[in-house]
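Course assignment 3, question 2. Fill in each field.
Student: A.L.
Task: Predict the tertiary structure for the chain below.
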Amino acid sequence: MMMRLYGSSQSGNCLKPKWVAALLGLDLEWVEVSAFDGSTRTPEFLAINPAGQVPVVVLSDGRTLSQSNAIMLHLAEESRLIPSDAYNRAKMFEWLFWEQYSHEPAIAVRIARMHYLKIPEAELDPALLTKGEAALARMELRLKGAAYLVGDALSLADIALIAYTRNAPKGGFELARYPAVGAWIARVERDLGLVNASEAS
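Answer field:
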């Protein structure tokens, strides 16, 4: 059977493996699942992923795999998106771990609360803005002298970080303050064949 990826089009975490599959030409059926209406808590969905989260992929042999970066790593096995050099491969993992610990918990959360849930800025934890700005500053530092986060080519690190960074303005972040990040966003969007996030809004 064809691989089936359950995810929400509003979630950067869900789009990451979808983009990897498209870039590598993998056969993948996308199943839209809302993360906001309880769809991930139904008995049917929990039978696929007991954690009640998207994304989750059902592989062609029926096995399942969840967590966006784990799915990406599986889909991209032995592809150009995973550096062959041991050090660069470890740096890719460094960015993947950092994305889920230091980037996504601030930037993605502000996007969800401000853009989708329409929570006023004054009601948000101010630490989210501080942590998000620190994450963007960290990326700016790396990208001032580099086209990509690892080595000189697109990798899973870029795909992991582009998902929410390109939509950071929806969370109240000013990307104009980070010109190297802005140039990187445009570059990776072109690599992935994505419409610029600001134009798609």
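Instructor remarks: The mean pLDDT is 96. Residues 3-75 form a domain with the Glutaredoxin fold (CATH 3.40.30.10).
Grade: pending
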